[in-house]
């Protein structure tokens, strides 16, 4: 590796767009690139290169530069120090800007014209979306924690249900897009640009709530609409605790372009920073990928199995884990031909493993879940920054109908996506179902293995939902998230079915009673045989290695906590989620940033019109002689007919409030 002192860092470079807007880039060049051009690696996201992501960027991109790549971190239009406005996710303007960046890169004297893209979350999304545009400069992509389907597998919806993270993500971006560019970079125009952002960036939840079914809005940017458009090689990466792991398997099944997959134990983070652990030497793996596709070096990476996964061992239920026990497994292809489907019948006695049994009519059971089912579900997308993982599922099972399997005589390894087929009826035209599969230990503790959701009006199609006919039996299939999980002998499976899952999912318009006929309902699980090569101790990744990073100090330890308070006198329940970081001082940049988030989820009794989600987000930036603060407050409530949306923003320069704005809209429910 080149000495870090020999790497040339350009703290801000302006990249001109065709319309004259300038995007801000931080660039690291390897030694000698000015005379001997090198390939480039681009990360293109809206999270502020000069402060918010600077600590992470400075550990990753100089590493790539030391390995012979020009590494770039570019702020999206209207974010960080870049000019213009950022008014929603993945707009066509963003993708065209990305293609323009690639063209600009290819023309630089220090670049060979070959470019790779890397990104997590937003950057994982737009790497794929830009690949689908087929820019000739793009030679390979590493997408981490991403989706190929913006409607059915993103922070907004799942199984046609509206995720409550739809609000929290909107609130997060409301706060983020309200921050100004840095005057040390852009000069005196910073205040004018800031006011422009405050006036015009908008509160995106208002738009998202007006698209409650799959339509052209969500199809844009969903590369699943045409997988064949992607020609560039894709390395697809995620973690089991992340909300986006299913997309890895869809790309492996559907891409014609070269594709590898990697799924570890991690939450929403890069694998070299992976939590829960074990973290891996992911940057070395990225260099092997880019060396193969951008430098033509035979690193052997394409001769290896297409998919590596962390097979999780059984664990006690907890809301956070430092490290998840398990082992690496590999599959030459996906779907793996030797993974068998194991069918379980739902019976009056529980789960019965009898794949050859014919469906038999039985007495029905029913469930009308209380709203507290879901309080211990954790986040849809865990960040492993506190108790955001699902807790002991016994705390949820009392509000569900439960089917227990027999005690396992042998170790069983689930690998893939299970399915639950339910023969049911609802007494309401709009209803949902949540299905959880748990590992029940000999002591009774229940660890959630995987789960699935379905808005029953979306039982046939997401683009054309239809209300249920109350009392009419129908068969629906609920797909469970992909997983690799090993249950030891002596444990047993539990399937729990509920009619609500708050606050992970926004409830139906009113409580629904679901009648379920167990005899004609089934659970299908993918079971992987234990292979001889697994016993050889596969260890495909090296130790964590990265650059030292920018020097910084932090005034206080980050605070992350969850509190559940049940006021028994008023029968009111309130879940509070708090995250508070910093202040963090970036010594090279001379800037300090701090942020705090408070989220509150409440309901009274089992009154569906009492559910309330509320966020308070604070963002601060300071340098000598300059201090700015933005405060946002968002509230989402509903009745049986509509959503009520309230949002406020206040911006301060020093102690003086320089901008305030309020939004209040009522948006009809569309079979949600």
Automatic annotation (TrEMBL):
GO terms for molecular function: dipeptidyl-peptidase activity. Residues 287-547 form the Xaa-Pro dipeptidyl-peptidase C-terminal domain. Transmembrane segments: none annotated. The keyword Membrane does not apply. It comes from the Bacteria. InterPro entries: AB_hydrolase_fold, CocE/Ser_esterase, Galactose-bd-like_sf, Xaa-Pro-like_dom, Xaa-Pro_dipept_C, Xaa-Pro_dipeptidyl-ppase/CocE. Keywords: Hydrolase. This is Xaa-Pro dipeptidyl-peptidase C-terminal domain-containing protein. It comes from Limimonas halophila.
């Amino acid at each position: 590796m080149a000495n870090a002192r020999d790497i040339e860092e350009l703290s801000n470079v302006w990249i001109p767009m065709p319309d004259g807007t300038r995007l801000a880039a931080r660039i690291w060049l390897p030694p000698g690139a000015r005379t001997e051009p090198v390939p480039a690696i681009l990360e293109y996201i809206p999270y502020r290169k000069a402060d918010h992501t600077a600590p992470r960027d400075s550990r990753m991109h100089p590493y790539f530069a030391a390995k012979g790549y020009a590494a770039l971190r570019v702020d999206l239009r209207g974010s960080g120090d870049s000019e213009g406005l950022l008014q929603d996710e993945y707009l066509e303007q963003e993708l065209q800007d990305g293609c323009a960046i690639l063209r600009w890169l290819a023309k630089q004297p220090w670049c060979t014209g070959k470019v790779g893209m890397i990104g997590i979350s937003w950057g994982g999304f737009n790497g794929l979306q830009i690949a689908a545009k087929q820019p000739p400069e793009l030679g390979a992509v590493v997408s981490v924690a991403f989706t190929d389907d913006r409607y059915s597998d993103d922070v907004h919806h799942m199984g046609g249900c509206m995720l409550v993270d739809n609000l929290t993500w909107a609130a997060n971006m409301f706060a983020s897009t309200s921050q100004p560019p840095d005057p040390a970079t852009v000069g005196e125009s910073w205040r004018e640009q800031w006011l422009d952002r405050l006036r015009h960036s908008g509160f995106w939840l208002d738009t998202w709530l007006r698209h409650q079914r799959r339509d052209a809005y969500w199809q844009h940017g969903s590369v699943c609409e045409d997988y064949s458009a992607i020609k560039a090689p894709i390395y697809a990466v995620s973690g089991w605790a992340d909300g986006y792991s299913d997309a890895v398997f869809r790309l492996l099944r559907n891409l014609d372009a070269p594709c590898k997959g990697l799924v570890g134990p991690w939450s929403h983070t890069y694998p070299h920073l992976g939590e829960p652990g074990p973290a891996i030497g992911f940057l070395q793996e990225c260099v092997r990928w880019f060396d193969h596709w951008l430098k033509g070096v035979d690193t052997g990476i394409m001769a290896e199995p297409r998919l590596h996964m962390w097979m999780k061992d059984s664990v006690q239920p907890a809301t956070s884990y430092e490290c998840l026990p398990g082992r690496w497994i590999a599959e030459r292809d996906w779907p793996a031909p030797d993974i068998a489907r194991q069918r379980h019948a739902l019976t009056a006695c529980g789960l019965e493993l009898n794949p050859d049994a014919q469906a038999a009519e039985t007495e029905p059971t029913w469930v009308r879940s209380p709203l507290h089912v879901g309080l211990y579900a954790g986040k849809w997308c865990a960040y492993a920054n506190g108790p955001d993982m699902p807790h002991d599922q016994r705390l949820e099972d009392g509000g569900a109908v439960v089917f227990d399997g027999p005690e396992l005589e042998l170790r069983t390894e689930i690998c893939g996506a299970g399915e639950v087929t339910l023969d049911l009826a609802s007494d309401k035209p709009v209803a949902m179902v949540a299905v959880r599969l748990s590992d029940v230990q000999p002591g009774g503790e229940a660890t959630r293995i995987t789960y699935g959701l379905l808005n029953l009006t979306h039982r046939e199609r997401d683009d054309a939902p239809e209300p249920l006919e109350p009392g009419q039996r129908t068969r629906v299939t609920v797909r469970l998230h992909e997983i690799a999980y090993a249950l030891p002998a002596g444990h047993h499976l539990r399937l729990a079915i509920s009619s609500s899952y708050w606050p992970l999912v926004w409830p139906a318009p009113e409580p629904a009673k679901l009648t379920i006929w167990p005899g004609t309902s089934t659970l299908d699980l993918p079971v992987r045989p234990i292979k001889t090569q697994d016993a050889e101790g596969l260890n495909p990744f090296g130790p964590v290695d990265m650059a030292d990073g920018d020097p910084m100090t932090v005034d206080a330890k980050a605070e992350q906590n969850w509190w559940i308070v049940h006021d028994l006198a008023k029968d009111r329940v309130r879940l509070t989620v708090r995250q508070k970081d910093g202040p963090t001082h970036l010594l090279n940049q001379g800037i300090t940033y701090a942020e705090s988030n408070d989220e509150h989820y409440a309901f009274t009794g089992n009154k569906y019109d009492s559910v309330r989600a509320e966020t308070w987000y604070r963002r601060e930036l300071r340098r000598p002689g300059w201090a700015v603060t933005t405060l946002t407050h968002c509230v989402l409530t509903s009745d049986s007919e509509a959503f009520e949306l309230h949002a406020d923003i206040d911006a301060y320069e020093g102690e003086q409030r320089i901008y305030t704005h309020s939004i209040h809209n009522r948006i009809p429910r569309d079979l949600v």
